[in-house]
Design brief:
about 100 residues; mainly beta; 2 domains; 5-stranded antiparallel sheet
Length: about 100
């Protein structure tokens, strides 16, 4: 099961210029991690129709994504007192040594 959601805000900076911001998190995706994305866009009116009912607007924006994944690990204390961290990406099988 995949679940997602997040806030969306639209604000008029001036009488005719508005900015819209959106952030959403989706997870889990194929493993125990979470993925999220964000969007920011600005709407600037260019021209209104003769009756004023419709507006031609220019929209410019930026979007991006981020991810977070929990990785299972096992810590082994050596005889000399140092600690080795072994990672296991999927929580089963043989863990690999971290770098």
């Amino acid at each position: 099961m995949v679940v997602g959601g997040g806030p969306s805000v639209t604000v008029n900076l001036w009488r005719q210029i508005g900015i819209e911001m959106l952030a959403e998190a989706v997870g889990p995706v194929e493993s125990s991690g979470t993925f999220g994305y964000y969007l920011t866009q600005v709407k600037i009116p260019i021209r209104k129709s003769a009756g004023g009912a419709r507006t031609l607007s220019l929209t410019a924006g930026v979007a991006g994504g981020a991810s977070y994944e929990r990785i299972h690990e096992r810590r082994v204390v050596r005889l000399d007192g140092s600690t080795v961290v072994l990672r296991n990406r999927f929580g089963r099988g043989r863990p690999r040594a971290s770098k």
